[in-house]
Amino acid sequence: MGFREETNIPAGPLNPKGERFETVMLHAGQERPDPVTGARATPVYLTTSFVFDDCDAAADVFALRKPGNIYSRLTNPTTDALERRIAALEGATAAIAVASGAAAIAYTVENLCRAGDHIVSSNTIYGGTFNYFEHTLKSHAVDCTFIDPTRPGTVGNFEDAIRENTKMVFIETIGNPNANLIDIDALAEMCHSHGVPLVVDNTFATPYLFRPLDHGADLVIESATKFIGGHGIVLGGVIAENGRFDWEGSGRFPWMVEADPSYHGISFAKDAPDCPFCTRVRAIILRDMGACISPVNSFALMQSLETLSLRVERHVYNMQRVVEFLEGHPKVERVNHPMLPDNPDHALYERYFPSGAGSIFTIETVGGREGAKRFADSVRLFSLLANVADMKSLVIHPASTTHSQMTEEELLASGIKPSTIRLSIGCENVEDIIADLDQALNKI
Ligand code: PLP
Fold first, then answer.
1. What predicted TM-score, i.e. pTM, was given to this entire model?
2. What whole-number distance in Å separates Cα of residue 339 and Cα of residue 361?
3. What are the start-end ranges of the E strands in 258-410?
4. Which of 122, 178, 203 has most ligand 1 atoms within 8 Å of CB, for mutation?
5. Which of 173, 225, 359 most suits a substitution to test ligand 1, by most atoms within 8 Å of the C-beta?
6. pLDDT band for position 191 (cuts 50, 70, 90)
7. CB of 170 closer than 6 A to ligand 1?
8. Residue 17 CA from chain centroid, whole number
9. What is the pLDDT of residues 61-94, one digit of tens each?
10. Is 122 in the pocket of ligand 1 (CB under 6 A)?
11. Which CATH number fits domain 21-303: 3.30.70.100, 2.40.40.10, 3.40.640.10, 3.30.1330.10?
């Protein structure tokens, strides 16, 4: 249906000269009234497009003279509410939601890079992202240098990899799958001294436990499919920014500064100073490539966002009990978690995560590959599936699944052994979780 839209839609990134994004958490009862029903809640605007009052009104919206919705590939009021809430949680001036976390990463790269460019990335990242950087991007003539952040001199190693044509440094706040950490403040300072933006995938921390923008990151990505959703029902991805990166001063991104002939001659950096990145992703990338999020998914993600803090608190509590249990188990050779004092990232954990973190981590079982698979095949409460951060506890054998496109050498360089098992500790009763792990480990 074509929903008749009035003027109650707040200024968004397509209205770059409009008001700043609100950075308050909106609750259902505080939403602006629906123009037709008067209901003060976020309806699901399940519509492709929005009816204009007349041709002049339509022309005003198309020419960015007035805020308003045109087509749900670009903006949708339900998605707009989700974006404003994520922006508030991340301490951002703006956020843009897309179809999945992978789309958020791809659109970030697409907005930062041209053929012939280069990026630098940690190698302790989600296997899908590794694949994209290592293989798919090569076919777009974008080269990636991977850095192993577990080696001494991390920040210097990233710095040594930066070239004239480097357009981003990419890391995960908490690495997938081994939960390794990086000194984000120091890395951000180094990146800025070269005019390169630091992009942080904050999926495993969530803005409840850590806000990368407060530590110098320029862009934050979330796979909303994980903790933000938490129920394993919908995919979604988000990019957030705080408008502080100096696009003009950097000199590496003329398309962010110069007049864009495909969008009314807009200069994203000058005309949308608070949110140039999200504005360009929306106006150009989403317009042209179209991996928009469904408003139904936005609605589902907003429902779960309301319990993010409660769920993450419980995930962290359960994780702490489980890590302590696994540390002493005879069938476990190693637990890779930074909360443990002998973990190389323990000092960073203490500094950056006062409320705890990392309910996704790995263990190495006895019995090599066969031992790990026997364990994963024996769990009963845990689900064996390719996701993390669900309310329910999950398990997977990365070397043969999520990271299976990597070579043996790449796997080992990323800290993934044949005996590595990834656990995602859910919100069930912790005694049940421990009992299930115990019985499955004892099957090895
Ligand atoms: N980032 C991280 C850290 C992930 O673990 C994943 C998926 O597992 C993604 C991004 C991709 O997100 P999505 O599955 O929503 O596309």
1. 0.92
2. 11
3. 332-336, 360-365, 383-384, 394-396
4. 203
5. 225
6. very high
7. no
8. 27
9. 888 788 889 999 999 999 999 999 999 999 999 9
10. no
11. 3.40.640.10
